[in-house]
Amino acid sequence: MRWLLLKDLQILRRSPLQLTLLVIYPIVIALLVGFAMTRGPEQTTVALYNAMPADESLGFGGEEVDGNEIRDQLCGRVDCIEANGTDDARKMVESGEATAAVIVPEDFGDKIRSLASLDPQPPEIQVVVNGSDAVESQVTDDRIDAMLGEANLLLAKRLSEAANRYLDLILKGGELDLFGQELEILGLQKSERILNKLEPKLPPGTDRDELARAARFAQLATQNLDLAGPLLTAITQPIKADKVEVGDDAPSLDTFAVGVTVAFALMFVTVLLVAGSLALEKEENAFTRLTAGLVTRGRILAAKVELGTVVGAAVALILLVGLGLFVGIAWERAPYWLLALVFAAAAFSAAGAALGAAAREVRAATLAAVMICLPVALLSLVPDDAVGSAVETMINVVSAIFPFRPALDAITGGLEISGASIWLSLLHLAALTGVYSVLARLALRRF
Amino acid sequence: MDQEETRAKPALAAREVAKAFDGRQALDGIDFEVGAGEVVALIGPNGAGKTTLLSILAGISEPDSGKVEGDGVAWVPQQAALYRRLSVRENLMLFARLQHEAGQTDEDPQAMVDRMLELTGLTERADDQVGTLSGGNQQRINIAVGLMAGPSVLLLDEPSVGLDPAQRERLWGFILGLVGTGTAVAFSTHDIQEAERYAERISVVAEGERIFNGTADDLRREVESGGVGDLETSFLAFLRKHGH
Ligand SMILES: Nc1ncnc2c1ncn2[C@@H]1O[C@H](COP(=O)(O)OP(=O)(O)OP(=O)(O)O)[C@@H](O)[C@H]1O
Ligand SMILES: [Mg+2]
Questions:
Q1: For residue A108, which phi and psi values (nearest 5 degrees)?
Q2: Which of B150, B182, B199 is the last residue of a domain?
Q3: What mean pLDDT is predicted for residues A333-355?
Q4: Cα gap A119→A113, rounded to integer Å
Q5: Residue B174 and residue B125 share a domain
Q6: Residue A216 has pLDDT above 80, yes or no
Q7: In a domain, B77, yes or no
């Protein structure tokens, strides 16, 4: 079988023009797509108008939430520009200077403070988007959602810290500052101890029983409220988990763009190469000769998948190392992303083989490769929340049966230090390699 | 006129072979045989089933019914089954290695390549890409690959199509050189003169059946008394007589 592989490599070497196109074209497309991915978000500018009194503090329960802090959170993911008033902010959106405006109303501070009171009122901010561009406003909505998510997260954390402190106070006692007056809070633990101490001193009778009951209550309450603290923190945990997706811990846009670039190049190089090279066996008439007692169809197929895996992974590796000169790449995770490249290359090879076997002609095979790869890969990049649920399901199905999405997941997972586990994606790719190999083998029966 | 008894045991024989494609009968229970060291021509109209018969004889496709007897068969497809981007030597080397690996020959691939280069007279062009060679030279390499395993029967599908008379003559010189060493040859052709000149026996196939089997003179005698004149004219008359 190595002779078949060697022969294909010799043919490649003899075809410098095709080889150059085969490598350059995918890389150019991949870089363009990757570039587009990184440019997108930088263009979102949000006009911010804060109607809250400048010196107003957003403290509640002794926890200070600085207005600037919220602002920083809001403006962490987008370019913020300052507006001078509600109308000014609206105009900025209308003129296109800003893609959206966020207006923080005057009573925002009061509402936030009310969250820690007995009568909480949800704080609201006003968002102004330019509705004339559907795609743009959809993207902006997503961004604003992300901004609000981060701000909410900050508030939730502070709220739970404040609530924890109140609980602590009720449990252990301490000083509480209420309307400028220092109050001494006894605390349940201390109450229990006092009550327990008092009990034997009282004469037997109803009062003493009452006291014992009160002491037991204090004890029970102490025990149960002890749990309330961690519980309250636990309630805020889901929000914290969301942050992984929204915040800086999620695959950074750089990593994602690198992943997209590499996955695109890998897909094109491998699918085009294997589909074209298998169809070439037919065009050169060599297939009949090879299968007339020399090698089995299965071995020809295996040699092609091997060719695609070797060449595809090599090109992707070179591209990745090249990109590493410009963006940070986690070199210490090389075993992971190398594994991802090899598995992805194998899956694309098998898909290419199925295509080449079905097309049986180099031109038809390469045309079909481009016409199938490009839209399917782009489809896999459409964000879930940008489309309706029916379309989303359709996209997910298409993404699952073509190796691009799992390849992208495996590569970004491999690159990301805190990234998701890549094993599931590798398994997915291995399964696709198997399925497409079987399809290719079936198509070769009438090759 | 049936000459199959003249050869004790054919090197290769097809018995009542039938094959249909999509319900259309390409071969309709045909008999065909090649004796050891014999040269047989297969002629017949387009779509008669010549290629189908040769590929079944070569074991490349399976008949629907009937059987094929004989081994040591090599098949040379009509169009050169070679990699045009590879050099003559690289092509020969690839197939020599594959045949060696498949256990079809014990000969060392390098020695085999050298022998084939010498046999085809293409040693000087060994490092040229096959795509740059003339059709005749490509066909020689094509046949040389078929000869690697030392077959007892060589099946050639329209081997000289597209060659000028000089190239054709050189190619046949090459093929008949092999026959001298005991290899039998069966070839299909649309060139009636070529069939008469190089084949000892002619089989006419039409619509999947063998409608004639004998020498060129036998064929002439089928349509006119005396057995003289242009064989192509006789052939056409013969086909008409049989309603083709
Ligand atoms: N792979 C195939 N699929 C479908 N039909 C086929 C196939 N191969 C051959 N046929 C049909 O079988 C019949 C015999 O074809 P074949 O190629 O054997 O004829 P032939 O005698 O070699 O013709 P030609 O002189 O044109 O080469 C034709 O009708 C052809 O269309
Ligand atoms: Mg034919």
A1: -60, -45
A2: B150
A3: 96
A4: 10
A5: no
A6: no
A7: no
Superfamily grouping for domain A45-163: abc type-2 transporter like domain (3.40.1710.10)
pLDDT for B57 equals 94
Q: What is the pLDDT of residue B120?
A: 86
Asked if B181 and B120 sit in the same domain, the reply is: no
Q: What pLDDT is attached to residue A417?
A: 67
Bridge pairing between strands B184-188 and B153-157? parallel
ipTM of the complex: 0.80
Say whether pLDDT at A172 is over 50. yes
Q: Are residues B143 and B167 in the same domain?
A: no
* Measured distance CA(A57)–CA(B170) in Å, rounded: 102
Mutant choice from A18, A289, A297, A307 vs B, greatest count of B C-beta within 10 A: A289
Give residue A441's pLDDT: 97
The answer to whether the CB atoms of B77 and A289 lie below 8 A apart is yes
- Judge if B216 and B170 occupy the same domain: yes
Residue A278 is encoded by which pair of tokens? 């298998």
Residues with CB under 5 A from ligand 2 (ion): B 51
More confident residue, A189 or B123: B123
The answer, yes or no, to whether residue A341 has pLDDT greater than 70, is yes
Alpha-carbon distances, residue A191 vs A186, A198, A206, A212, A220 (angstroms): 7, 10, 20, 12, 12
B77·A285 Cβ contact <8 A: yes
Does A406 or A26 have the greater pLDDT score? Answer: A406
For all residues of chain A together, what is the average pLDDT? Answer: 77
Question: Who contacts B111 (Cβ-Cβ below 8 Å, separation ≥6)?
Answer: none
Of A4, A14, A285, which has the smallest distance from its Cβ to B85's Cβ?
Answer: A14
Closest in A15, A290, A292 to B85, CB measured: A15
The whole-number average pLDDT for the span A227-246 is 36
Q: What is the CA radius of gyration of chain B?
A: 18
Beta bridge partners of B155: B75, B186
Q: Specify whether B170 is located in the same domain as B222.
A: yes
The answer to whether residues B68 and B176 belong to one domain is: yes
Reported pTM: 0.67
B48 lines ligand 1 (CB under 6 A): yes
The answer to whether B82 contacts chain A (CB < 8 Å) is yes
Tens-digit pLDDT profile for residues B167-200: 888 889 888 888 888 899 999 999 999 999 999 9
Q: Are residues B118 and B212 in the same domain?
A: no
Q: What percent of chain B has pLDDT over 90?
A: 59
Residue type, position A194, single letter: I
Q: What is the pLDDT of residue A356?
A: 95
Domain ranges of chain A: 7-38+250-444, 45-163, 185-236
Token pair 């003249």 in the structure block, residue? B6
Strands B65-69 and B12-21 come out as antiparallel
Tens of pLDDT, residues A237-248: 322 222 222 223
Domain boundary among B124, B150, B176: B150
Domain that holds residue B10: 1-72+152-244
Contact A254, A227 (CB under 8 A): no
B117 and B234 part of one domain? no
A293 touches chain B (CB under 8 A): yes
* Residue B86 to residue A3, Cβ atoms within 8 A: no
Instruction: Find the CATH number of the domain harbouring B215.
Output: 3.40.50.300
